[in-house]
Write a structure and sequence with these properties.
- Helices cover 39% and strands 20% of the residues.
- It is of the alpha/beta class and 258 residues long.
- The strands form two sheets. Strands 2-1-8-9-10 form a five-stranded parallel sheet, sandwiched between helices. It has a five-stranded mixed sheet with strand order 3-7-6-4-5.
- α10 links the parallel β9 and β10.
- The two termini are 18 Å apart.
């Protein structure tokens, strides 16, 4: 079992995106338990570029996640860029910082709730009648943002620039559950949570009783509807640091962090 002074926290981020969260958990006195439940892959670049070219010119470009930013940037470059007057929006400050580093400064972000619901509260997204909106997104996922903007009169086009592929080691997860190694769970998307439940199989009932730290209020609702019955808390900021803060709130500070 894990050191009782360093409780084990399950990290479900995709491989290559989990290190910062793991480092933050370790610095806070926890033991990160790496179990990626998804792999992120670029979608067909030719299809993505063609979709964007068909959507241009646009008045508003929305990036629904950090993965969307990462995989959309080469698509935008290949399509010749966004129009000079195009407004850019992102679901959270972390995505906005990545956009700023790529030259897209002053991205609109929600003030509190960092998800589609939060974005939709912004005044600029209420005044979209007659505008063309491009949403950079992954394959599948929620349609709330697109549906709501269309209902507000926008011409909404989606550019699918990445896809999620199932991953993970079911045997490792079941071993940790059997040993009581996992003190809390983290999840950053509905797909990662679905992947975790699929890996758990018959042990999902035990998994659902554990404390769960997530990135958005929408994910709290989703987890509750999926049957999670332990404590669930959402980060105030959709970031790795925000998740670490939530884990500390759920579990308290370990006795002897190192």
């Amino acid at each position: 079992m894990a050191d009782t002074h360093r409780p084990g926290v399950l990290v479900t981020r995709p491989a290559g995106q989990a290190q910062a969260l793991g480092d933050g958990l370790r610095a806070a006195g926890f033991t990160p338990l790496y179990l990626p439940t998804l792999a992120i892959e670029a979608a067909d670049p030719a299809l993505a570029v063609a979709a964007l070219r068909a959507a241009l010119p646009c008045d508003l470009a929305i990036f629904i996640s950090a993965n969307a930013v990462q995989h959309a940037l080469p698509v935008i470059a290949a399509a010749g860029g966004l129009p000079a007057g195009c407004t850019v929006a992102a679901v959270g400050p972390a995505s906005a910082r990545t956009l700023a580093a790529a030259g897209f400064a002053d991205a609109l972000t929600p003030n509190a709730r960092f998800d589609s619901e939060g974005l939709l509260t912004l005044p600029q997204l209420h005044q979209v009648a007659g505008q063309r909106v491009v949403i950079f997104r992954g394959e599948g996922g929620r349609t709330l943002l697109a549906d709501t903007l269309a209902a507000r009169g926008a011409d909404v086009r989606a550019v699918v620039c990445y896809r999620r592929v199932a991953a993970g080691d079911a045997a490792q997860l079941k071993d940790w559950l059997a040993r009581g190694t996992i003190a809390a769970l983290t999840a950053t998307s509905r797909a990662s949570l679905d992947g975790l439940l699929a890996l758990a199989g018959p042990a999902a009932a035990q998994l659902k009783t554990l404390p769960l730290a997530v990135l958005s209020a929408a994910l709290v609702d989703y987890a509750q509807h999926a049957g999670f019955c332990g404590p669930i808390m959402s980060a105030r900021e959709a970031s790795d640091a925000g998740l670490v803060t939530v884990v500390r709130a759920l579990l308290g500070s370990p006795t002897h962090p190192r």
